[in-house]
Amino acid sequence: MYAELHCHSNYSFQEGASSVEDLLVRAHDLGYRALALTDHDNLCGAMHFAQVAKTLEMQSITGVEMTIKDGQDGKENSHLTFLAETKGGYSQLSNLISYSYVAADRRNPALDLKYLPGDLDGLILLTGCRTGRVPSLLTGGRFAEAETQLRQYLDWFGTDNVFVELQQNLVQGDTSRNRRLIDLARKLGVPTVATNNVHYHVSERHRLQDALVSIKNNLSLEQTHKERRANNQFYLKSPEEMATLFSRCPEAIKNTLRIAERCSFDLTKDLAYRFPDYPVPEDATPQSHLEDLCRQAAERRYGGVNQKAEDRLQEELWLIGKHNLAGFFLIYYEIIQMARQIMIEMGLSDAEIPLEERPPGRGRGSSVAMLVGYLIGLSHIDPLEYNLSLDRFLSDDLGSVPDIDLDFPRTIREELIVRVHRKWGWDRAALTGMISTYQMKGVIRDLGKALGLPAQDMDKLAKRVDSHDAKEMELEMLQLPEFRDKVDAPGWRDLIEMAAQLDGFPKYLAQHPGGMIISSSPLIDTVPVQQAAIADRYICHWDKDSIDQAGFVKIDFLALGALSQMQECLLLIEEREGNFIDLSRIDFDDRAVYETMHRADTIGIFQVESAAQMQTVPRIKPWNLTDMAYEVGAVRPGVGVNDGVTQFIQRRSEGIPWDYDHPLEQRALERTLGIILFQDQVNQVAMDVAGFTSLEADQLRRAFGKRNNDLLIQHCWEKFREGAAGLGVSEDAAQRIFQKFNGHYMFPESHAFAFGATAYHMAWLKYYHPLEFYVAIFNQQPMGFYNTETLKEDSKRHGITVLNPDINHSREKCIIRNESVLLGLRYVRGMGDAAATQAVAARDQGGPFKSLADAMERTGLQREIIENLVTAGAFDALNAAGTTGSMEKTETAKTAGAVGTAGIARNKGAVSRRQALWEVGLRYRPINTQQPLPLPVEQDMTELPEQSEWETMGEEYRILGLYPEGHLMALARPHLRPGILSSRDIEAKADGDIVTVAGLVIRRQRPLAKAVFLTLEDEFGHIPLVVWPGEFAKYRQIIREPLLVIRGEVSRREGTMNIVTHHVEPMPTMKNLPKAKNWQ
User: Fold this and answer.
1) What mean pLDDT value characterizes the chain?
2) 359 and 492, same domain (yes or no)
3) 159-209 pLDDT, tens per residue?
4) Shared-domain flag, residues 918 and 843
5) Same domain, yes or no: 93 and 157
6) Which among 262, 286, 309 is the end of a domain?
7) Is beta strand 59-69 parallel, antiparallel or unpaired with respect to 77-84?
């Protein structure tokens, strides 16, 4: 037998050509009992590897192949292989990897040898591949230096912990190098060990590995002969093959098993992580201090602790004490206090306002149902008022710490991350890692270059494909006329085949949007930490899944744009009405609010504004927070992939009967009518139907979430079938139940409840305070599903006017003026924060601008910005008031004589803008001058033709991204052929009617379902469209046009209306139109 101790997965970025699952399943099939993972310079895949190995009942050995900085200039780097024998050895390994990033480019780590001498007990050293220091010295004939280097390793690691590594990949030089290594090992009495430097699980994958090396070097295959491996022998060989290769050195094979037996460290259970303690007063314990905080808050909240609150509080505190979680909640409380202080410093709250009345963030997950979380500011929902069940979040048999994520407004989150780093230090607080993976467009560009395919073709194909899944590349190409004939062409066939293999591969380590871990001891003892791309931030090598599996407490500081919008909306209401609204105390059963959602009036409302949500809200018809949780949970890819949304709606709304595939499903699925809506239910079904443990069920759920997971899923099915049979479930029933599982995203139930509450809050604000709602949403762009033009049109339908920016009244951000939304100066193209602040400061200091020339002189803005302000209408009020200076008065009089007073009233802004732009050009003479010259310009003015409304619209789209005055379809409609209906006309059409419509495309979606969904907008509203696969294949390129004319059939069902598309044609278009949100 044999154990492979030098193995790379695709977490060796742009090196390894096989996934963790591929390698472990292959090893399992070959009869391996143990396998090591030694990725290059990171442990990013180590926890995932260990968990999958545990599922396969194999031993996982944690290791790394590390780059060593040998030369003084850092150019003579070599490799060493390290294996963790014990918990202490693993800690040293994690430290060494972290140190390798300290003094090096984070993208090219290398360990300085000065970090090696020290306490290295529990760490096994293999002398490395052919680029190891000892092997390379021997290859170069520098025998004395090689011996000196090996003796140094023995001094550092101890004679029992160093092995001379032998590799036989049938590459020229392998045999002679191994002979020299064996001679040196015998001379110094050092044991040898055989490895195969594995980079892929089967030999056929060598083609992908070659391509990855080319991608890493940003070259083609033809240009990387030296960098690529010499043959296809770097695969996971069977023990028999390895024994044959090392038949003359059998001890090297036996030593693999001896090392495996020594490596007792198990990453899945041996980590020494501990959450930080919270400092409490001398006469208190964490438990008593938490109780005091809760009772003080309860006094403020309820005017005293009534019996209902007392019973619930005592229950929760008992459970918290049982599971020793008081310190856990107090650390969260401390972080919330830090966020509150930031909020106060930013002027968003007052120190006198209690935390629970104006929390700086919102909890998801466990905190939503906890009275303790509500009282200490972790939740925005009163669980007593809405009878939220505690059992699903904190129970007597709790298996892991509760999951509490915190959403913050963007500005608070950024500062909070800095302060958490500052308080706990970089070695005890780090951001969670996130693995960026390959998707279709990236695969095309990177792999195409490696294969030497024409760059212009790769760029065109990347822009034309719609799917994100690289496995669908052939299908995508067959639907594109210019690529259809290439699918079997040389090079292109390789692209298609390797794209399917590369799909979902790790690309690099990135920063998670907001997850952090903090520890009572240095984090680098448990997981490597490195610098992030942003200064003064550090990230660990594990993603959120590995963090959870390690038992770390991850705190998510998520920047939720909806919270920034909500916070600003509430502050505006307080400024105008004098009182702050506590959203936790509003009526959550307000039928008027729910009825607006039933009409799909949800643009700008978090979680229910997508085209898919607009179709389901009228069908589900939520009337309470539980219904809202079902609504936001239902429209997830993992629910829709098995047509679960439709089935849930039919069972809920129409009472359609249904049966469980087996009675054992009932406990998990009864409340959701037999449909898996939430992640939690996948786990529960696996435990109830197949007898899985909580850990096994979670491993099953995660297995479905991995790409290229066919072999692993097959193993999971066999285990599920066996467990189900043991509980009396037939194989047929087990198969049907297992087929309900999938790897597409679903919400945890607690998240759905939290987001449902936030969605209701937003809907309530939009209904009762629309003006403040729209000012806030305009100030938070870009966010959500729609561009600003669509938001403007929605505001008009709610009686809110959007005004062009005004140089004498606009601030940097949008404000309320004359019961309308006055656009901020930042909306003007090219302004930016600095220029907008500069203009406002000049006006605040010197008073309102008296003329265009006055504004140009006092603001000192560059010519392009002044021209953009003019084009955006920021000087229209000056022109209309006749206060732009004598030159503008003269030109206005001339124009009045030419077009008449009616023309002036209708087009005074447009005419004045054209004259003003002429003046800007005159004042910025010579052409390259960036400051205006105080010279007379009247003598150089000339009469200019009137600017049309269409021209004005196009220019405002270009400069502002929207046209405040109207909608382009209002101007285009008189020029459309007869019979083209508006969205208002469609309302009267019956199911089955054939209609023709036209409009601006504001949304294109292609979810996992078969259909493509488009949304057209015209001057009256929206028109939802369904495009089935046949029509999509026919019109897929035309659909990309911004303006479309579409003929189709009206489809009405369950309160919704769609037009099923039959024919698509483009409308004549114009430049600078607002862009649709595509394929999200």
Assistant:
1) 87
2) no
3) 999 999 999 999 999 999 999 999 999 999 999 999 999 999 999 999 999
4) yes
5) yes
6) 262
7) antiparallel
